[in-house]
Design brief:
The complex is a heterodimer of chains A (739) and B (62). Chain A is α+β, with helices and mostly antiparallel strands. Chain A has 24 helices and 28 strands. In chain A, α3 runs antiparallel to α7 and α10 runs antiparallel to α11. The two termini of chain A are 41 Å apart. The longest helix of chain B is centred in the N-terminal third of the chain and has 24 residues. Chain B has 62 residues and is mainly α. Chain B is elongated and about 65 Å long. Chain B contains 3 helices and no strands. The chains are: A alpha+beta (739), B mainly alpha (62).
Chain lengths: 739, 62
């Protein structure tokens, strides 16, 4: 069986100088040596013009001459080098460059340049004010400052002005509204003072404010870009493509975005079905554990519906692609997902909540200052200057850095614990969790079936069973083959479709397959099932001896029991909500020591339970992987998926954890709680700063020098406090790590 | 104080040169990968076999 021809045209784009270009996500890059190996190997290929690995995002970009080569040898070479690579579908990756990030960096560079130069002039003016500067020189310095500051504010401030405008248009308040007001008033006031040849101008404050805020904005962006890049890599490496059957009967591997309703795709035995559709030809058994949580195989025939994410067991299927039809599981999932997502978007970020409190208070204080001084008999012009200085000093400089700086540090820590964040605010939401709801199949248990350790075979027998299992593409046989590490297929092994495989070794006939195929009595089978209700059984028979029953199933993840115990000790209440049958769920709950579990649930039932918990005031973390979990992942306050989850669920989850161990769930909660504490400290620091600074400003003591010192001081303090998180969390998560 | 007429433009031009250099490096994609380049300097795979420092040192000894 050879791999189907792949439709490369869908992945390739043309570069400006007439070469072909392709971006690939590469799995298995661990260090710089991998980077040299890949680049050097590819450069030796004829026709390859340029190959460059991005070690931060684990992506490879290749340019080649279309007349000399094509993508096949490139991907084949990566395969031989031992890397799994899959090209990005250009339709799914929005833009190759990071346009938003570059805009922020450019604005940051311009404001940094301006801040430095204006500060150069300002310090001269401040020291001159203390000694003997004459009015002409000061006015000259102010005018040059204005010349630098005005274009800078217009250019670097755009990001905030735009966001503030959008917020006001939709009648909301966000952090950018007070920022915009502060910056514009500071610049306007300074310009007016300059024209009047007054003593004080605040150009340095306005530009420095922009600089610090842009640093915060860039931190925020950096974290989101990193998490998004890895999420895209994961999605791409799942090879979301399908073997489309063309009119002439040949198959062509195409990305999912190129399929339309009515197309037919071919799914071979042991392959994962990548589309939703109706079976047009063929019969098979399907493993639906990723979709419904049900661990037993289900037989399907022509006319039945199958879902993306399910595993085809032993038959070849021809599937006609359908849109989600009314009343199917998929339709229900999509509908529930939409409603749940709407609820999610109502969450207000901690920073926005802070600014909703903050903006009215600050603006009221400024207004009261103005009115107060006028009532005390001051002219309106100096009173206005004092009122604006209140706004300048309270402009949320430290507040703008307080949360993003912590998020950047925390996401680095998450990364070390093999947790990738999908949403930046997930950290805040994770920190407030008190109830954890687990899905069973694929979440508490491993996503793939494996052979139980108490199988009762000797090593030689096990090896023989493994080699025999290699001849079959049935998922249960493949689990046995994997567990035994068998490499060599037994010669002359015959597969009886849907029953099992048999072969003759040294004159002895050996069989591996369904219990009935090997002559196991129903009574014996029932007895074995009582002992291990969560397993399926494959029978193995040597000659005429009595057959062995090999338990195969989705067993607990590594460290599942310890992690659940730790979570319970930490005071979380834990529930299991599963779509699987009651016996299997009860067995799992008993092993883990979880009292509260429910089995045989539909997607809607899971949501109902989560809504019920939320109505009781609980903050729910949902951990799940299946298609049936996707709506509840979105409905919960916050959610985590294992990396093996179906695409829809991964997209709905706030974070994804890598690897076979369940331990990252615990570390994610620990880190986020610590991060939340540091965020609160930072917010408190900002408030304290204002409590000290505002009275001075109201009394009119705030000169540009004081404003500059206070602003940079408070920004540096909150940033340093955020960096401190690395130290406190770094030591505390050590004991949780698996060696 | 007339010297300021020259000094301030000089300061601005120098600062501006730094800004332009940064914008150029950003445009030419030098900030796309913050991880790889620090390792690339250690890669001597592009050298001729006999010009590698270790090989040269070996020859000197023998």
């Amino acid at each position: 069986m050879s791999a189907p021809e792949r439709d490369w045209a869908a992945f390739v784009t043309d570069t400006d100088n007439g070469k072909a270009h392709m971006d690939l996500a590469v799995d298995g890059i661990t260090c710089a040596a991998c980077m040299y190996e890949i680049e050097r190997g590819l450069q030796k290929l004829e026709g390859v013009e340029n190959a460059r690995v991005n070690l931060s995002s684990h992506r490879l970009s290749v340019d080649w001459d279309q007349e000399k080569t094509n993508p096949s040898p490139i991907v084949d070479l990566l395969q031989t080098l031992g890397y799994k690579a899959y090209p990005f579908d250009p339709a799914q990756v929005k833009s190759r460059g990071d346009a938003a990030g570059k805009e922020i960096l450019r604005a940051l560079a311009v404001s940094g340049f301006a801040a430095m130069n204006i500060m150069l002039l300002s310090i001269s003016v401040w020291s001159g004010n203390a000694s003997d500067i004459d009015n002409e020189t000061r006015a000259f310095f102010h005018w040059i400052s204005a010349l630098i500051a005005l274009p800078t504010v217009a250019y670097s401030g755009r990001i905030f002005f735009r966001s503030a405008y959008m917020a006001i248009k939709t009648k909301r308040l966000n952090m950018d509204v007070p920022i915009t007001i502060g910056v514009l008033l500071a610049t306007g006031l300074s310009l007016w003072q300059t024209i009047q040849e007054a003593k004080h101008a605040y150009f340095d404050s306005a530009v420095m404010l922009l600089f610090f805020l842009l640093v915060g904005r860039y931190f925020d962006h950096l974290m989101r870009r990193k998490t998004r890049a890895f999420a895209e890599n994961l999605a791409t490496l799942k090879a979301e493509s399908a073997a489309k059957i063309q009119e002439d009967g040949t198959t062509l591997d195409v990305p999912l975005s190129k399929l339309t309703v009515g197309d037919r795709v071919l799914v071979r035995a042991g392959e994962r079905i990548s589309v939703d559709g109706r079976i047009a030809a063929g019969t098979s058994e399907v493993d639906q554990s990723l979709v419904t949580g049900e661990t037993l195989l289900q037989s399907v025939a022509e006319g039945d519906l199958v879902y993306a994410g399910t595993m085809n067991a032993d038959g070849v299927l021809e599937i006609e692609v359908t849109a989600a039809a009314k009343g199917t599981l998929l339709d229900e999932v999509n509908r529930l997902l939409e409603t749940a997502m709407e609820g999610r978007s109502r969450y207000v970020h901690i920073a926005d909540r802070a600014s909703q409190l903050y903006a009215p208070v600050v603006h009221a204080a400024a207004l009261l200052t103005l009115v107060g001084w006028i009532m005390l008999g001051m002219e309106w012009q100096p009173a206005l200057v004092i009122a604006i200085s209140v706004l300048i000093i309270t402009c949320p400089c430290a507040l703008g850095l307080a949360i993003p700086a912590v998020q950047v540090v925390a996401s680095g820590l998450f990364f070390n614990e093999r947790v990738l964040l999908n949403a930046g605010d997930a950290i805040e939401r994770l920190a407030s969790v008190d109830t954890i709801v687990f899905d069973k199949t694929g979440t508490l248990t491993l996503p793939e079936a494996s052979l139980s350790k108490d199988h009762g075979l000797s090593l030689e027998q096990l090896d023989l069973a493994g080699r025999l299992a290699l001849s079959s593409s049935h998922p249960l046989s493949q689990a046995i083959a994997r567990a035994t590490g068998a490499q060599h297929v037994l010669p002359e092994a015959k597969e009886a479709a849907g029953k099992g495989v048999e072969a003759t070794v040294d004159g002895m006939q050996i069989k591996l397959g369904s219990p009935a195929f090997c002559g196991v009595s129903d009574k014996q089978l029932a007895q074995a099932k009582d002992q291990q209700p969560d397993a399926s059984f494959v029978a193995f028979r040597l000659g005429e001896a009595e057959a062995h029953l090999l338990p195969v199933g989705q067993f607990m993840r590594e460290g599942a029991a310890e992690t659940v115990q730790k979570l319970k000790d930490a005071g979380f209440s834990i529930e299991i909500l599963s779509g699987d049958h009651a016996g299997a769920v009860k067995h799992a709950a008993d092993i883990l020591g979880v009292d509260c579990w429910k089995a045989g649930l539909k997607p809607q039932d899971k949501i109902n339970r989560i809504e019920e918990l939320k109505a009781q005031g609980k903050k729910v973390l949902m951990v799940g992987d299946g298609l049936n979990d996707a709506p509840s992942l979105a409905a919960a306050n916050v959610s985590i998926s294992p990396v093996s989850a179906v695409h829809v669920s991964q997209a709905a989850a706030d974070a994804v954890f890598l690897g076979d161990s369940l331990a990252p769930v615990m570390s994610a909660l620990t880190i986020s709680q610590k991060a939340r504490r540091v965020m609160n400290q930072n917010l408190a620091l900002s408030v304290i700063y204002n409590l000290i600074a505002v009275p001075f400003a109201v009394l009119g003591f705030v000169t540009p020098l004081v404003a500059a010192l206070a602003m940079s001081g408070s920004s540096i303090i909150v940033t340093l406090n955020a960096v401190r998180l690395r130290m406190i969390a770094g030591t505390a998560t050590q004991p949780d790590q698996e060696a | 104080m007339e010297v300021l007429i020259y000094l301030i433009p000089v300061a601005l031009v120098l600062g501006g040169a730094g800004l332009v250099a940064f914008l150029w490096s950003l445009r030419s994609g030098q900030y796309d990968d913050m991880e790889g380049p620090k390792w690339r300097i250690l890669d001597d795979g592009d050298l001729q076999e006999n010009s590698k420092p270790v090989e040269a040192a070996k020859r000197k000894v023998s």
